[in-house]
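User: Reviewer 2 asked us to show a designed sequence for the structure in our supplementary figure. I'm pasting the structure tokens here. Could you produce the per-position amino acids so we can include them in the response letter?
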């Protein structure tokens, strides 16, 4: 009798998990298929996804700690609270966490030999992050949350990953050419740019002003459009990295 009542609950939970995972998997497949020169190994891509899982765990802990400190100095009702929370704590905790595992698990990998690879890796880490986050949200809040996040948060994380991946791929290319300053600058931008976009996304989404809903819709539309253009151009113009030639004297 106990299992008779338990079965519908288990089925419902599995439906929620499927609703949470399918959008992320769909985007992963689309990005993978755009890798025209040399598709990455499934093992490496799974490593990126797991890095995203760990980034979500680490970011959650940092955000909890950051909020605990912030509320002692700034009222949660103040606009300054939202600015610091989203643009600093959330933006850098989540995008910084993604970048940490991204670089740790791919920078020196021999498969990282094309510029577009940076986009693929960053998007897979971002979607691994979104996948873990989305399952948590959906199991707690229900199916309606899955529908909303399927068209906002999951593609949003993918877009943040695109911006990170563009600069990350450029950084690796500059590193191959021995342009260390440019490589370092691109690595910094690989965190700063998606963190700023992420902060703006959350800040606008958290506004209680009804008129800001249209701002949020416009922001998402522009973000998706730019990300699509970047993926398309990076994929079409993908190239192998060139190693800097050393000059020898005989």
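Assistant: Here is a per-position design you can include in the supplement:
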């Amino acid at each position: 009798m106990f299992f008779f009542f338990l079965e519908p609950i288990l089925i419902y939970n599995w439906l929620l998990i499927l609703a949470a995972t399918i959008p992320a998997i769909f985007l992963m497949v689309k990005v993978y298929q755009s890798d025209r020169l040399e598709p990455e190994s499934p093992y490496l891509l799974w490593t990126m996804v797991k890095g995203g899982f760990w980034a979500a765990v680490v970011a959650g802990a940092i955000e909890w700690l950051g909020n605990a400190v912030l509320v002692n100095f700034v009222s949660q009702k103040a606009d300054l609270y939202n600015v610091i929370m989203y643009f600093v704590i959330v933006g850098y905790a989540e995008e910084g966490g993604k970048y940490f595992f991204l670089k740790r698990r791919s920078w020196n990998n021999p498969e990282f030999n094309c510029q577009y690879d940076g986009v693929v890796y960053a998007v897979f880490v971002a979607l691994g992050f979104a996948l873990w986050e989305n399952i948590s949200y959906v199991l707690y809040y229900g199916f309606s949350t899955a529908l909303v996040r399927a068209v906002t948060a999951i593609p949003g994380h993918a877009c943040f990953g695109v911006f990170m991946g563009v600069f990350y791929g450029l950084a690796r290319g500059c590193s191959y050419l021995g342009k260390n300053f440019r490589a370092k600058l691109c690595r910094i931008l690989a965190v700063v740019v998606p963190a700023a976009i992420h902060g703006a996304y959350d800040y606008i989404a958290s506004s209680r002003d009804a008129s800001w809903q249209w701002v949020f819709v416009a922001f998402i539309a522009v973000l998706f459009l730019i990300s699509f253009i970047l993926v398309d151009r990076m994929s079409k113009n993908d190239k192998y990295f060139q190693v800097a030639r050393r000059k020898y004297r005989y």
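For the response letter, you might also mention the following. Residues 2-33 form the longest helix (32 residues). The radius of gyration is 20 Å.
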